Amino acid sequence: MINTLIKNIQEKNAPIVVGLDPMMNYIPEYIQKEAFEEYGETLKGAAKAIWVYNKGIIDATYDLIPAVKPQIAMYEQFGIEGLIAFHKTCAYAKEKGLVVIGDIKRGDIGSTSTAYAVGHLGKVKVGSKAFSGFDEDFVTVNPYLGTDGVKPFVDVCKEENKGIFVLVKTSNPSSGEFQDKLVDGRPLYELVAEKVVEWGNECMGDTYSNVGCVVGATYPEMGKVLRKLMPKTYILVPGYGAQGGKAADLVHYFNEDGLGAIVNSSRGIIAAYKQEKYASFGSKNYADASRQAVVDMIADINGALGR
Amino acid sequence: MINTLIKNIQEKNAPIVVGLDPMMNYIPEYIQKEAFEEYGETLKGAAKAIWVYNKGIIDATYDLIPAVKPQIAMYEQFGIEGLIAFHKTCAYAKEKGLVVIGDIKRGDIGSTSTAYAVGHLGKVKVGSKAFSGFDEDFVTVNPYLGTDGVKPFVDVCKEENKGIFVLVKTSNPSSGEFQDKLVDGRPLYELVAEKVVEWGNECMGDTYSNVGCVVGATYPEMGKVLRKLMPKTYILVPGYGAQGGKAADLVHYFNEDGLGAIVNSSRGIIAAYKQEKYASFGSKNYADASRQAVVDMIADINGALGR
Question: Which of A11, A186, A217, A305 is most buried, by CB atoms within 10 Å?
Fold first, then answer.
């Protein structure tokens, strides 16, 4: 699956991913109103609004971007109905040729991790048949439980030609509380990075591994070191834009082949119409504002990369 | 919510929790057959079988136990239909007076963690209304992202009188890969434990905090140290039985007040009828086998505790 992601990135000359993390207050009022008129102010109404909003963004941007990254928490908060909207969003994005990175940050042990992997990347057996639950292309995985937690995902990736991104260094201010702690003089996240390489060697694509990692844009010095530690590992980079990461900081997340990183923006794209810069689009044209924000983001990052 | 859990434990004299982690191969064939006759070999058929199986176990054990711990991965693998069975199981267990610990091991940052917390423990706003998504009483939380990831759960716990159990030292063989790494001479899990105490101080019940932790039964020496480090933290203990943890090992997870720990068994209870010891019940009476396994587990643990 990493081959497909790279192909998409190259064809569109866009090392970016759009985070579909819909908050209710991002969704233009007219969409909410229509959904509530149909289903009332209910979980189903909220889910309908989310789906319509997402579809608008996908329709307006799919030809420019290689991938989307729906954050499942934003759907899960609306219970079953929200998760139906998540599933529908993933399926629609795939229909449009996009790679879907499910930002699920799951992680457990043994048969439990297998269950997550099967549900999100593989197929579950029911009697003599097998079904996909959510069917993303990649998911994000939390490594705190060690190899027992990650290996079952890798096994499913091998069987199904899917991929994962393992959290190494997250973009948030307190990520250092545990991740930066020094172990024999080296930060914990470097130890995690070494394991990512080990897990990834088992599941290689042509040039990069199907086991990628997450390193926040907000820690560029660490990104530079981690890039070198994991030469064949694709880095999913959150934290650009709204969280403070700048394009110039991201140069060292890439390899010399111009590959190796994919930069996420969520709020900065999907709620672009709320920024002063794109306010002239108005809420009715929120999706066009998102398209313009995508164009600008690609130019910003490619500019920093000198291409 | 920790007060309610403790009250349940005391009334039933049973510091245990039954892990509702249904694997298809645990579910007696006659239940699967009936479900497949109704819905075919589909995700809906699987979900029906899981629900019937769970209901049988809850009906047969609810008067003996304080709580259940459904492992959401085992439901999530069946997609939306599986999650409907999860929701139904949680609701039914609550109807029967049980405390529901959602074993979801979620963890993200900021508004994303808030979304998980709201979806599983609180209420999400939709227009002028508010709805519960899954409505568990407690959930398990992964601490790898630091305070930014856990604090939003604590905030929702305060508002809604709910609780969490934060992963400190998990029961699996490779849990030491990161959790045991020495930081200034002390294992990482102790640093996590100190943070658990800090987070927990903000959200106290009468004698224990609504912020508990997870420490595996398979590491009793570590359990002993962690018990002392976190005197007011309830410890959820996985790994008893099938994973190798013995009752005698668990004594030091408890405080002198006889409280402070709740021991989970999943497979050992819900698939008891598959063990030689309970085979005479037969698959038709799988729930009675589970009841007997609960009686035996309570006796085993209370025996080790000398009461």
Answer: A217
